[in-house]
Structure formats: structure tokens, C-alpha cells
Amino acid sequence: MTDSAPFSFPGPPSGSDAAPAPARTFDAALEAWRAWQESPWGRLRYTLAEANLLRHLHPAAGAPVRVLDLAGADGGDALRLARLGHHVTLVDYAPGMLAAARERARQAGIAALLETVEADVFRLPGSVTGRAYDVVLCHNLLQYQEDPAPALRVAVPLVRPGGVLSVMALNRHAMPLAHAVRDLDPAAALASLGQRHAHGDTFDTPLTLHTAEEIVPLMTALGCTDIEHCGIRTVNDHITDDARKHDPAFFADLEALELALSARMPYPHTAKIFQLLARVGAPVAVTAR
User: Fold this and answer.
1) E-assigned strands of 87-242?
2) pTM for this structure?
3) Which regions of the chain are under pLDDT 50?
4) What pLDDT does residue 94 have?
5) Which segments constitute the Methyltransferase domain (predicted)?
6) What pLDDT digit, counting tens, does each position of 112-170 carry?
7) Inter-axis angle of helices 30-38 and 40-54, to 10 degrees?
8) Contacts for 28 with CB less than 8 Å, ≥ 6 apart
9) CA–CA distance from 23 to each of 7, 9, 17, 27, 183 (Å)?
10) What pLDDT does residue 33 have?
11) What's the pLDDT at 286?
């Protein structure tokens, strides 16, 4: 995903049962992915996600928690939590991404806190499903799902009662504003209203855009409570001078503003990415209508 321009909008993918991109698609773009992570907007994405999550973690006396990161790629989220002393299981189906995560953990001296599992999220082995986790991350998955419900049905039961689920997805509401502000193209902005599909540049893959309003009811039906809607990059993507974001002083001010706005309504509604954090209890019975 790039920051300097909104996504392009091709036709929709073939359907909700379309085959996922092969693992080699993601492994081949590892260098580009790491460059994106190290960009100002990439750093904001991880800093904001971590800050929002940590507000919801209350381990007794600083005790480590057990974290499951579904489709966690090279550990951008997972390793931040491991550095805090938490035990993290990272699941991804791209072996190159997992190898990169292990190497990053080794270099940081936290290899003992990271477990990697090569698996499709929808075909998890018993070594993963046989545990209950204090925290489950679903941060890099929904944009590759036409229908988000199956992924949520995988994630929620893996959270122990009272644990935390963190879900992130690309925000469809941000696209028209991005076209209007960054491209100065109101016609494209108008055409993108309600558009559910885009194309991601970094991995050269089709993407599905969701909204928090669509995901919250699905989470509630699965037993999630106390859902907090946060925004990731509420203003960054609407600032057209990307070069200035590399200036340390400007970036520090931008980061402080992003942190202040992330959970402050109404700003999350037009953020580039939305993050939903919830407690998980007993599943709620859903009556067919």
C-alpha cells in the first residue's frame, strides 16, 4: 500500500470464494513491504495500533500475556508486543515472511518470545486452536476477504473469555476524501462513493474495503462487547506533502496529533484504516431471520 496516492479501483474480484493470493506473492514483495513499514506512514500505522491495543491490556502486575497474530506477515505488530515481554504466536502462510519475523526477533534478542506457525488462517493446526489467547490480532487479513465474517468466526473463539480482540481493516469511507484532497479529482471521488474494491500496490493484489459500521455487528453477534472504534492515520493521508513527513520535528508533531485523534470521534470515521478493539465473552445466540 502506498501513501502518496489513493488506491486504484478495478472491477471486483471474482467472488467471496476466490482463491487467495499465493504465498509467493507476499514473499516476493518483502523488500517493498519493509520499505513501506519504515516510511513515516508505515511507522504511524504500527505506533497507533500498539498504543490503542495497550490501553486495553491490563495484565496483573505486568505479567506477560499470550498473543495470537493471525496473518501477521513479518511480525510488524507481533514483535512490538514481544519486546514488552509478551509471548506471541505468529501465523502466516508465507514462509519468507515468517523467516523475516524470526530474524527480526533474533536480532532484537526476543526469539524465545516468538513462535511462528506456517498455516492458512482458515486451516489452523491443533497447536494453535488448542489454546486460548489473552489477545488475538486480526490486522492484516480482512482487506483480502470479500466476506469478513468467516475470518471473524475463526478469530473470536481463540480469545479466552475476557480477552481482547483487535481487528483492523481498510476504511471505505476514506477513499472519496483521498481522491478529492490528494488528487484534486472530485469526479473520481464521486465515482468512488460506495466502491468496495481497490488494488494494493505493494503486493499487487486486489483488496476489499470495509467499514466499521459493517464489522461491529458481526463482532457483536460473535460475543464481542465494549467495542471501541479507533482510527489509524486520521490526518496523515490527507496531508499531500509527503516529503515533509520525513522531517523529524514535523513527524513528531504529526504522531502526537494522530495519537490524540485516534479514539476521538468523529475523526476515526474518515481515517485510512479503522481499528476495532473488543472484549470477548460467551457467544451470543443469533436467530435467523
Assistant:
1) 87-92, 114-118, 133-138, 159-170, 197-200, 205-208, 224-232
2) 0.87
3) 1-18, 283-289
4) 87
5) 65-184
6) 999 999 999 999 999 999 999 999 999 989 999 999 999 999 999 999 999 999 999 99
7) 70
8) 96
9) 22, 23, 17, 6, 33
10) 75
11) 38
Query: Strand 87-92 vs strand 159-170: parallel, antiparallel, or unpaired?
Result: unpaired
Considering only the C-alpha atoms of the chain, give the largest distance between any 2 of them, rounded to a whole number of Å: 55
Q: What is the DSSP letter of 210?
A: B
pLDDT of amino acid 283? 46
Residue 232, CA distances (Å) to 7, 108, 212, 253, 272 in order = 17, 26, 12, 16, 6
Structural domains in the chain plus CATH codes: 23-279 (3.40.50.150)
What cell numbers appear for 137 in the block? 490480532
Number of neighbours of residue 269 by Cβ within 10 angstroms: 16
Single out the residue of 138, 116, 147, 137 nearest to residue 20, CA to CA. Answer: 147
Q: In this structure, how many other beta carbons lie within 10 angstroms of the beta carbon of residue 102?
A: 17
Place of cell 491490556: 57
Asked if 30 and 100 count as a contact pair (C-beta separation under 8 A), the reply is: yes
Locus of grid cell 520525513: 246
Q: Parallel, antiparallel, or unpaired: how do β-strands 133-138 and 159-170 relate? A: parallel
Q: At 165, phi and psi to the nearest 5?
A: -115, 130
Prior bond to 266 cis, omega within 30? yes
- Which neighbouring-strand residues pair with 89? 68, 115
